[in-house]
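Help needed: design a sequence for this.
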């Protein structure tokens, strides 16, 4: 059986869905690997690194001509025509934002797995692409925000006087937010953070951050994610955030609700109350934005405050993020393959079922049943 790894075609996507390490592991499972020439260039992985690990090289058509195709992002329009009946497609297919494409996988007869849909259970940890990528994104967001800040992060006591430490505020303390907090702490900033899930308070404090805000009743869903706030809760949060923002130097926002537009938390009025020279980085800019007026991939000044809209942060660390992503994928693909190296999809496995969007011409994931 053959695994194909095409070069990612979407703009700003530098990651690749396999690494030399995972090629060796696929070989160990009895699978042949075909990598598109240049697929790893953006992740600092030369073609030779893949061939040395046992893969063969091909053009795009050759890489797509495989029983299992591994992708980072969902296929582009031009790639949809390459899909074929019975093929398995695995990646971060972003199904909530591309519902029509989910229907197209079904009509093409493709078995599509979107790893963002995996349940966040202990067994799924080794395949948890959301965590591996968000962890790096949270780090990069804080590094970018610090780089854009024109004062210094740690306290410095010098003969010429004392420089006070920067005050950093992180909104949303999931995987990305916690890594942002840890990164700012390492640099010596004074860090505060907020979230709406009860577990977040302790996690923030365990990293040396101070919790600010309030935890609404029942704000965490059974899946461990946050639910949207009611208008009253939003107003309460807005009051607390508005008060706290005034004194902050760097604000990094990471709040997300799966399958929905990101909650708007920082308004233009709040930004206007901040000190000149402050930096606001919106990690949720691509999913609607936590910060009013932020644009993915764009930066602007508003009353002396720099507002940065993040865009595909994991791709900006492609050598690191690809290696982790590739390993997540390999752990998942291992569930789909028999000892003899043949395709063996176990419909009773909760992880296989949890990530499966389409199978045998039908949409099978309950969250997309209305598309069927
Ligand atoms: P996410 O990307 O969906 O959201 C980021 C953060 O934003 C979350 O912490 C969320 O609570 C927060 N948020 C949403 N609305 C908010 C608002 N209005 N104000 C402030 N904060 C808001 O989350 P994630 O990083 O993917 O983590 C989701 C959950 O999954 C967490 O509970 C995390 O601990 C859990 N998790 C579990 C495992 C596991 O193996 N069991 C692994 C990773 C993550």
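Sure. Designed sequence:
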């Amino acid at each position: 059986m053959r695994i194909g790894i095409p070069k990612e075609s979407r703009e700003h996507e530098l990651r690749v869905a396999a690494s030399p390490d995972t090629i060796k592991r696929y070989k160990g499972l009895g699978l042949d690997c075909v990598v598109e020439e240049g697929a790893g260039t953006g992740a600092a992985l030369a073609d030779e690194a893949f061939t040395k690990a046992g893969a063969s090289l091909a053009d795009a058509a050759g890489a797509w001509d495989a029983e299992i195709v591994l992708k980072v992002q969902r296929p582009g329009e031009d790639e949809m025509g390459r899909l074929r009946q019975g093929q398995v497609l695995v990646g971060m297919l972003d199904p909530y934002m591309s519902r029509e494409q989910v229907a197209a996988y079904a009509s093409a007869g493709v078995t599509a797995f979107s790893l963002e849909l995996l349940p966040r259970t202990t067994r799924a940890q080794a395949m948890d692409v959301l965590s591996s990528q968000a962890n790096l994104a949270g780090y990069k967001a804080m590094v970018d925000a610090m780089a854009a800040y024109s004062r210094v992060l740690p306290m410095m006591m010098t003969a010429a006087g004392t420089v006070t430490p920067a005050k950093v505020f992180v909104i949303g303390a999931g995987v990305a937010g916690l890594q942002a907090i840890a990164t700012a702490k390492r640099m010596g900033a004074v860090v505060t953070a907020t979230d709406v899930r009860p577990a977040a308070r302790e996690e923030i404090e365990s990293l040396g951050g101070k919790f600010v805000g309030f935890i609404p009743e029942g704000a965490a869903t059974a899946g461990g994610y946050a639910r949207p706030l009611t208008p009253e809760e939003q107003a309460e949060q807005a009051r607390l955030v508005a008060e706290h923002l005034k004194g902050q130097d760097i604000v990094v926002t990471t709040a997300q609700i799966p399958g929905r537009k990101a909650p708007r938390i920082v308004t233009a009025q709040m930004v206007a109350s901040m000190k000149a020279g402050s930096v606001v980085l919106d990690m949720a800019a691509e999913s609607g934005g936590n910060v009013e007026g932020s644009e993915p991939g764009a930066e602007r000044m508003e009353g002396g405050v720099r507002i940065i809209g993040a865009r595909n942060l994991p791709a900006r660390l492609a050598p690191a993020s690809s290696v982790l992503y590739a390993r997540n994928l390999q752990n998942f693909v291992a569930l789909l393959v028999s000892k003899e190296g043949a395709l063996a999809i176990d419909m009773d496995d909760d992880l296989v079922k949890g990530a499966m969007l389409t199978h045998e011409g039908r949409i099978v994931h309950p969250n997309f049943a209305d598309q069927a």
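The longest strand covers residues 68-73.
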